[in-house]
TrEMBL record:
Pfam families: GntR. Residues 17-85 form the HTH gntR-type domain. The lineage of its organism: Bacteria, Bacillati, Actinomycetota, Actinomycetes, Streptosporangiales. It comes from Actinoallomurus spadix. Transmembrane segments: none annotated. This is HTH gntR-type domain-containing protein. SMART domains: HTH_GNTR. The keyword Zinc does not apply. Keywords: DNA-binding, Transcription, Transcription regulation. InterPro entries: Bact_HTH_transcr_reg (IPR050679), Tscrpt_reg_HTH_GntR (IPR000524), WH-like_DNA-bd_sf (IPR036388), WH_DNA-bd_sf (IPR036390). CDD domains: WHTH_GntR.
Length: 93
């Protein structure tokens, strides 16, 4: 399991964007930079909530957003894992 607390964003209320999106964007950037490697387990939603200083529902929504972006995959009773980035991900054709 990895920690995503390094360089976490500061939520000061000046950004009008939803907090779950800010958390998801931060994790997505770390995936794209290669800091979070494919097949690595993401911390649980409760741990993410604590690390980012957000509500559990916010952490859940952030993970759901990452799944919708196809950056992570959640396996029931196992955890959420970073997916391998593919150039054709997201292309419906």
């Amino acid at each position: 399991m990895i920690s995503v607390s390094d360089e976490k964003p500061v939520f000061d209320g000046s950004d009008p964007e939803y907090r779950y999106k800010q958390v998801a964007d931060h994790i997505a950037k770390r995936i794209e930079k290669g800091e979070l490697r494919p097949a690595t387990r993401l911390p649980g939603e409760r741990d993410l909530a604590v690390e980012y200083g957000v509500a559990l529902g916010t952490a859940r929504r952030a993970v759901r957003d990452l799944r919708e972006r196809r950056l992570v995959i959640t396996l029931p009773a196992k955890g959420t894992y970073i997916r391998a980035l593919k150039k054709d991900d997201g292309a419906d054709g």
